[in-house]
Amino acid sequence: MQQLFTQFGLNADLIKSLLDVTDNYIAGSSALYAYQKSINMNPEWMPNDIDIWVRVSSDNLESYKVLYKNVLNTQGYKLDVKVKSSNYVYIGYDTIRLSKITDISSYVKDNKKIQVIFHTFEKVEDNLRDFDLSICSIAWSPKYGFYASLNILEDIRNMKGFIQVDEIDSRTEKRIEKYKARGFKIYKKVEL
Fold it and tell me: Rounded to an integer, what distance in angstroms lies between the CA atom of residue 100 and that of residue 118?
């Protein structure tokens, strides 16, 4: 993860400390990339962004938003787009998942993007199980390291993934093509 933070122009120790103190995590393509690097797969692709998942309550949402904004501002990142989850159309995810996302703040610097996703999922696995592609169902935190099921870790090592949504919309189609271009074989899930 150190190398990824550096490639995004971030002070790795500062970001690790922030994630550790607030007990939050990175998930999705950036965690996938870092995992591949950690097992010497040397991916030839770079994630488009870093998604930081921040668990909040009504008591700490505003203070966490200010904290993450201030830290990212010190790293040269500026707020680009702020979208309330009620206006954030994430086709392919159900209403329950959307109701758990309370706010999203997007920061940019030199064509690099960091999204801070404020949510109310109780457990990491509750969040990861609903990602549209299995290979993105991976997270990393400084406290716990990489987090994913053993099946998903094996699939990543074998460069294969599964579609985890019932309906494939245009967003998921684009993501399937993106991960195929990154060398993954993508399969539809099979119901037994």
Answer: 9
* DSSP per-residue codes, the chain: -HHHHHHTT--HHHHHHHHHHHT-EEESHHHHHHHHHHTT---S---SEEEEEEE--TTTHHHHHHHHHHHHHHTT-EEEEEEEGGG---TTS-HHHHHHEEEEEEEEETTEEEEEEEE--SSHHHHHTT-SBGGG--EEETTTEEE--HHHHHHHHTTEEEE--SS--HHHHHHHHHHHHTT-EEEE----
What average pLDDT does the segment 155-178 reach?
92
Q: Residue with structure tokens 């500062």? A: 14
The predicted model scores a pTM of 0.90
Cα–Cα distance for residue pair 51/29, rounded to 1 Å: 8
Question: Could you tell me the pLDDT band of residue 91, with boundaries at 50, 70 and 90?
Answer: very low
Task: Please report the domains of the chain, with CATH numbers, ordered by start residue.
Answer: 2-188 (3.30.460.10)
Contact status, residue 151 vs residue 143, Cβ threshold 8 Å: no
